[in-house]
Design brief:
The protein is of the alpha+beta class. The chain is built from 33 helices and 27 strands. Strand 23 and strand 24 form a beta hairpin. The protein is elongated, with a radius of gyration of 39 Å.
């Protein structure tokens, strides 16, 4: 094919491209690489498959899609001028189409066409633009699938089944010369509808009610229902072909007539430029950073509290997977947040690899070993870990509480929460934030309009959420970014910009000065409380959380000491002297006397009673205490009996007996079978090592430059092998059989002689080859060595040196000389 010859097929158009252009196609449509096509023809075939075309259309922006839709209703092939007129109109719409809009559309068409060409959705020269057939079928109008443009079928399509007599009646009523040739009749009617002057004269005679009917159909849908006895306006339109019958009760406005009424435009409002994301508020960038840092610190505290809550083994897993509604409510109450927000924190900890299932028979959720490593990090690095886990996560907490396509409830940590579009939406939303000046909070509505313009066909989900899932994901992103501290007061924080542009270390460096320094002290109060005026160092916070209960949170955390909390510390192995020393070392105020008395009183009674297994027993050196227990009516359910003056036995298990006696006001201690006091420490349960959940990919990954280069070379080599001119093995003449043709056939002796000669002369030959799996292929090889029943040769098809078994070569033929082609 000469360089100036217009391409006749998509394969020829792709073959004429340069390597960079082919790489651009494979980069934009990575699904075409799985597996790597054998040659250009196979690449073109794969690029025209329905699944691949649908995926490519979903990645088009609004105007590129409008351009493709205009080509779908244009003649095939369509000159550039017709395409432009479909997008800008014919200029005869009484000034409705402003000049500046027309100029913007004209300027944008070139870029839209370049995008469609790059993605192999459009091919051909400007005077013969062709939309690939599959895309035309998807975007062209039909009764079952109306066109996005709202246009109906052409006159020729709508009258395909109409009788010649009916056509003549329409021509006569419309004032046209009747003809018995259906083709001429259709052409005459089409010419009438595309003639501005004659069409205007015809419509001037139309009743006002008829024009109202046309106004309702002109921008779509173009179909309408009629009764067996239509009204006069509808009958007037039908008699003149302005409404053509599709069935006995359905009529359609033909495309040519609709375009006249639209002043030649395929779309009511062309959108050549993306909507501008406007500012909802302008804030001080430093205030935004501080607000985001404060929320980031709250996020860390919340996740830490969640890990502590599930430290000894979290809630059980539902049979279908995930958390029950009751457990989610309980978690939300413990975290002091709403249930949707609790679902977000649970899902975030799961995505970050901090929570997982323990794999036991009674399977539960619990912190992972990675959670201990995370807690040892600095606050700023803990935050970057959460943020970088959130960005690529495909699990969507916003779906919790909804239903799937089968009406089943979606639960937190359940198996049906993955949405592959979520990471792309999150990153795009944050990218739009980053395009605004620092401190600027975008208007959510303009942000959503921008996202809809960029991907108008995206958002549908196999779970049945509808076509607006992308907008819902964007709104959830706004809320989650604020909760996580990515944004502050609605604007992107500088530490988040650093995370997106420079990485985790840069973000951590920006965030560190904004976070409060951990404190090593508290303020003890006389009312048995301790006030932490800021975040505490981790060892201090862990010990204090065992010794006291959190009473309130906020800028300062208030802890309250109770007999139960002190007993909890003693159960963890602390002695009264240890507790006194701890409080004295970490309090900036003197230890109040009531607190010292409380610790001593609980410690004096702690362990006075001993609980063991009988099922359970109680032993005490003081017989009076055991007598008191037996006389107490609250102990009836424990079914106690005296085994010895200092020992009581119970049929309850040791744990139940321990809790029951504590509720009665005693301070028993559990002991082992050897009689030693059992020390119970917090945070004893961990899952086996777990990896974070893998995000569900939205499609094939975008290949890197190395893979693209190798793929292009392989396709070029295969194409060379498939299209090279060969000598006919039977007659010795030139042949241009492609890869779809028959394999060459020669005898074993002829095959051996030909490849040996080629190896000696260094020439290439054409072979047919059947591999070990029985797959047949054609190859162009340059033999290097022939020995031991094998041919070592450079395979032009695969662009590498390979070894071929002689007995698997079906035949061989020499390539034609240049002059023979």
């Amino acid at each position: 094919m000469g360089t100036t010859t217009p391409p006749r097929t998509l394969a020829e158009a792709l073959r004429a491209r340069g390597d960079e252009s082919l790489a651009g196609l494979l980069r934009a449509r990575p699904d075409l690489l799985n597996p790597v096509p054998n040659d250009i023809t196979q690449l073109a075939t794969r690029a025209g498959t329905r699944a691949s075309v649908v995926r490519a259309l979903e990645h088009l922006d609004r105007f590129a899609l409008q351009t493709a839709e205009a080509l779908a209703v244009a003649p095939d092939p369509a000159p550039y001028g017709i395409l432009l007129s479909l997008l800008t109109g014919d200029g005869l719409d009484d000034g409705e189409q402003r000049d500046d809009v027309g100029a913007a559309v004209t300027a944008a068409v070139t870029g839209a066409l370049a995008t469609l060409r790059e993605q192999a959705l459009v091919w051909g020269e400007d005077e013969r633009l062709r939309l690939v057939r599959t895309a035309r079928e998807l975007l062209a109008p039909s009764p079952q699938h109306p066109s996005p443009t709202g246009l109906g079928p052409t006159v020729a399509e709508a009258t395909a089944g109409m009788s010649p007599g009916r056509l003549q009646e329409i021509l006569t009523t419309a004032g046209l010369h009747a003809t018995h040739d259906p083709v001429s009749a259709v052409a005459a009617l089409s010419a009438l509808f595309t003639d501005r002057t004659r069409m205007a004269e015809l419509l001037d005679t139309a009743p006002v009610e008829a024009l109202s009917v046309l106004d309702r159909l002109v921008w779509g849908p173009p179909y309408g229902e009629v009764t067996p006895n239509p009204t006069p306006p509808v009958k007037w339109l039908r008699d003149r072909g302005l409404l053509l019958p599709v069935s006995t009760r359905t009529v359609v406005l033909p495309r040519e007539a609709a375009l006249h009424l639209r002043a030649g435009r395929a779309h009511r409002v062309p959108e050549p430029a993306p909507p501008v994301v406007t500012a909802a508020a302008e804030r001080d960038p430093q205030a935004v950073d501080r607000a985001a840092a404060g929320q980031a610190f709250t996020a860390l505290s919340t996740v830490e509290e969640l890990l502590k809550l599930w430290n000894g083994g979290g809630p059980a897993i539902l049979r279908a997977g995930g958390l029950s509604v009751r457990e989610l409510k309980r978690t939300a109450t413990a975290l002091d947040v709403t249930e949707p927000i609790a679902a977000f924190w649970v899902e975030l900890a799961y995505a970050a690899g901090l929570l997982a299932t323990d794999g036991e028979s009674d399977e539960r959720y619990a912190p992972t070993p990675a959670s201990d490593e995370w807690l040892d990090l600095s606050a700023q690095h803990r935050w970057t870990h959460l943020a970088t886990a959130w960005l690529p996560a495909t699990r969507v907490p916003g779906l919790v509480g909804g239903q799937d396509a089968k009406g089943r409830a979606l639960s937190a940590l359940g198996p049906e929460l993955d949405r592959s579009a979520a990471p792309d939406v999150r990153r795009r939303v944050l990218a739009l934030f980053a395009e605004l000046p620092p401190g600027t909070a975008p208007d959510p509505e303009t942000l959503l309009r921008r996202l809809r313009w960029e991907r108008p066909l995206r958002g549908s989900s196999p779970s049945g959420e509808g076509t607006d899932l992308r907008s819902r994901l964007a709104l959830w992103t706004l809320n989650e970014a604020e909760l996580l501290g990515i944004t502050g007061r609605g604007a992107l924080a500088s530490q988040s910009r650093a995370l997106l542009d420079e990485g985790e270390n840069a973000a951590a460096a920006r965030l560190a000065p904004l976070l409060p320094e951990p404190l090593d002290h508290v303020l003890l109060q006389a009312d048995l409380t301790a006030v932490a005026p800021g975040p505490l160092e981790r060892p201090l916070a862990e010990t204090l959380s065992v010794l006291a209960d959190v009473e309130s949170k906020g800028g300062a955390t208030v802890y309250r000491f109770t007999p139960g909390s002190v007993r909890r510390a003693l159960d963890a192995g602390q002695a009264a002297a240890d507790l006194h020393a701890f409080l004295a070392a970490h309090s900036r105020t003197p230890v109040p006397q009531p607190l010292s008395y409380l610790i001593d009183d609980v410690a004096r009674r702690h362990g006075h009673l001993r609980i063991g297994a009988a099922s359970a027993y109680v032993r005490c050196d003081d017989e009076a205490v055991l007598n008191e227990i037996l006389a107490d009516r609250r102990s009836t359910g424990l079914r106690l009996r005296r085994l010895a003056p200092t020992v009581l036995a119970s049929q309850a298990d040791p744990g139940s007996l321990l809790e029951a006696l504590r509720e009665m006001g005693y301070a028993p201690a559990a002991e082992s079978a050897e009689g030693d006091v059992l020390i119970t420490r917090a945070g004893a349960r961990r899952t086996p090592p777990r990896t974070p959940p893998t995000p569900v990919p939205e499609g094939p990954p975008v290949p890197d430059d190395t893979l693209l280069g190798a793929a292009v070379r392989a396709i070029r080599a295969g194409d060379t092998a498939a299209t090279v001119i060969r000598k006919d093995p039977a007659e010795g003449g030139p042949s241009s059989t492609t890869s779809s043709g028959s394999l060459p056939r020669t005898t074993s002796a002829e095959t051996l002689a030909t490849v040996q000669a080629a190896a000696m002369t260094g020439t290439a030959v054409w072979i047919g080859y059947v591999n070990a799996e029985g797959a047949a292929s054609q190859r162009v090889i340059a033999p290097v060595r022939v020995e031991g029943g094998f041919v070592t040769a450079y395979d032009h098809t695969a662009d590498e040196v390979r070894t071929f078994a002689l007995h698997r070569i079906t035949g061989v033929a020499e390539l034609a000389e240049d002059g023979e082609g």
